[in-house]
Amino acid sequence: MNMAPKITKPNLLSVEDAKALDLPHMTEYFKDHLNPGQLHFMKLLGFNKVKIERAEGMYYIDQNDRKILDFFGGFGSLAFGHNHPRVLDARIKFQQEKRHEIAMAFLSQYASALAKNLAEVSPGDLDMVFLGSSGSEAMEAAVKVAERAAGPERSRIVYAENSFHGKTKGVLSLTDSPLYRGEFRLVDETLCVPFGDIDAIRNAFEADPRIGVIVLETIQGGGGIISAPVSFWQELRALCDKHEVLWVADEVQCGMGRSGRFYAFEHAGVVPDVTALAKSLGAGKSAMAAMIARRDIYMKAYGKPNTALIHGPATFGGIGEACITAIEGLNILYDDDLIANSAAQGAYLLKKLEALQDKYPKIIKDVRGQGLMIGLEFQDFSQTLPMVLRPVVSVLDDKLKGSLSGFIGALLLKDYDTLVAFTEYNRNVIRLEPPLICMSEHVDAFVDALDSLLGRGIVGIVKDFVASQVK
Ligand SMILES: Cc1ncc(COP(=O)(O)O)c(C=O)c1O
Question: Where does this protein have coiled-coil stretches (predicted)?
Fold first, then answer.
């Protein structure tokens, strides 16, 4: 028997090494092996100085035991906060019982139960579920099921200006960002209309019988927390019925109770033909996403044995621990009344932000949102800043010019231990998507921090930001 040569173990870091990495090494590996360009922005905002050691509830805890209030909420991925004890317990028990994860050969009790729960929380006959592991994957599944049900003669897809549906190639074709679309070759049978413009949609449907699908976020996240009135969704439903166009509602960010209803479209009392969830479906501990379709649509697309695997589960679709994590999350959502809490705390936060807008009209341009999905838009100060400060600001990165939200986000973290999120397409909007476990004391702490920061005035804020860069 030939002896196989011994394979030497490469110089691998262990799990304990990973946990113990210091900031210089984290920075070095990030720059050399992950994303040097992104590091540039992290440095600009001062986020590169923080090493998170733990996270619990509404807070991250850094290397200096500093508690950072999380109003970013992973762009809506943390409905249950960080490391919810019930989620942890369910996962630990699942591991201790040595449950199986990959279930492609057998029926999975976990995937079946999660699908049943999703059908239970979804209105109308949104009953058929595909499980995946990212919002993009769920949205790909949503667009594909609709395309197959609409048929080859109705292959045109309508989407909205300022939309964000993910970065995989199919949904990138429905994502309205020149930056993200780059020069990739995308699906060409698409039509872009202004968000919330029912006349544009009616005209498109009437003019082009090849349109078979319309894809819309119910609340635009990346576009800057933009909603459409209830009447828009009701008219959209009627138009889709009239023209037999399938409506795909992207609820990846605004679903799971964030808007104050399980799905944001429920505010309008209408039901889409297909929808998608991700982010908080993973309960902050797992990568879980779902497409949920009307049963007749699903059956038309994949209902027969010879069509069943056209878009069947991928390797990690319905993986065990992620499924039970999502099941526990859904139960917590209702047991702890988090959807109602989102509506109540969201209304409270909005009211307090409106008061701040009255106090600082030269700084805050608009506040808007539903539930705990709130946008705070600042005035463009690039032209109003005193002449002396303009050259200082102009040497900063292009992305931050005229964008007060970058300065405010950086200073909220540095001076007030508070984290907020930015918005892809509108750099003047801060996105507030705290966990749905947020209580009024957290809202008060956040608004007090913002009030104190805005009290420095635009010039003070810019000067303090610039000073933080030279340190
Ligand atoms: C509305 C919406 N759809 C789809 C996606 C894509 O999700 P993922 O990043 O998990 O692929 C996102 C992510 O931000 C989103 O906000």
Answer: none
Rg of the chain (C-alpha set): 23
Q: Residue 249's closest CA among 132, 131, 146, 156?
A: 146
The stretch 158-180 carries a mean pLDDT of 97
Cα 425 to chain center, whole Å?
14
CA of 5 to the centre of ligand 1 (A): 46
DSSP states along 25-93: HHHHHIIIII-HHHHHHHHHHTGGG--EEEEEBTEEEETT--EEEESSHHHHT-TT-BS-HHHHHHHHH
Instruction: Please list the residues that pair with 126 across neighbouring strands.
Output: 294
Rounded Cα distance, 459 and 407, in Å? 11
144 lines ligand 1 (CB under 6 A): no
- Closest atom of ligand 1 relative to the 278 alpha carbon: 10
Q: Is 135 in the pocket of ligand 1 (CB under 6 A)?
A: yes
Report how far residue 198's alpha carbon sits from residue 233's, in angstroms, rounded to the nearest whole number: 9
Give 448 Cα–ligand 1 centroid separation in angstroms. 31
Do residues 288 and 372 touch, judged by C-beta distance below 8 A? no
Q: What's the chain's average pLDDT?
A: 95
User: Please, what are the domains in the chain?
Assistant: 51-83+338-470 (3.90.1150.10), 87-335 (3.40.640.10)
Instruction: Give the distance (Å) from ligand 1 centre to CA of residue 138.
Output: 9
Higher pLDDT, 406 or 266: 266
| Gap from CA of 8 to ligand 1 centroid (Å) | 41
Residue range 339-381, pLDDT digits in tens: 999 999 999 999 999 999 999 999 999 999 999 999 999 998 7
Across 222-250, average pLDDT: 98
**Stretch 220-229: mean pLDDT:** 97
pTM for the model: 0.97
Give the position, in ligand 1's atom list, of the atom nearest the Cα of 287: 10
CA 197 to chain centre: 23
Residue 30: C-alpha distances to residues 16, 34, 47, 216, 401 (Å)? 18, 5, 13, 34, 26
Apex 309 CA angle, 303 and 310, nearest 5: 90
Confidence grade of residue 404 (pLDDT, cut at 50, 70, 90): confident
Question: Ligand 1, from 218, 253, 281: best to mutate by most atoms within 8 Å of Cβ?
Answer: 253
Atom of ligand 1 nearest to the CA of 163: 1
> 471 pLDDT exceeds 70?
no
The span from the CA of 81 to the CA of 59, in Å, is: 8
pLDDT attached to residue 426: 84
